[in-house]
Amino acid sequence: MTDLIQRYFDLAVSDLEAWFELFADDVVVEDDGRTHRGIAEVRAWRSDVPSVSYTVIDVSTDDGYPIATADIAGDFPGSPIALRYHFIDIDDDQIRHLAIRP
After folding, report:
1. Are 36 and 44 within 8 A, CB to CB?
2. How far, in whole angstroms, is CA 64 from its chain's centroid?
3. Separation CA 46–CA 37 (nearest Å)
4. SnoaL-like domain spans which residues (predicted)?
5. Which of 34, 37, 58, 89 could be joined to 69 by an S-S link, Cβ 3.0–4.6 Å?
């Protein structure tokens, strides 16, 4: 697992301000049938996410980009659920495009 992907899951539950810094200003995040463009929309999207925990099950590569499969548990309908995090465009420091899918 790349360091950036590890930080994504670690910071998501421990330090949201540091977590937001993982995203480029013009980031695109796809989740639950919606597309969030830019860091302001990512902040708004995250504010609607309940407190959850992540257990990364696997990290693989598809079409040249990493995909992390994680179990997510929390106070939401259908919990726990396994989701796939497609890190479509990342560099060493920032996420530029992330698609979260079942």
Report:
1. yes
2. 18
3. 13
4. 6-95
5. 58
pTM here is 0.93
Q: At which residue do the structure tokens 């396994």 appear? A: 82
C-alpha of 70 from chain center: 10
CA distance 23 to 78: 27
- Quote the tokens at residue 67: 């995909």
Cα angle 41, 44, 47; round to 5 = 150
Percent of the chain at pLDDT > 90 equals: 82
Q: Residues 11-45: pLDDT tens digits?
A: 999 999 999 999 999 999 999 999 999 999 999 99
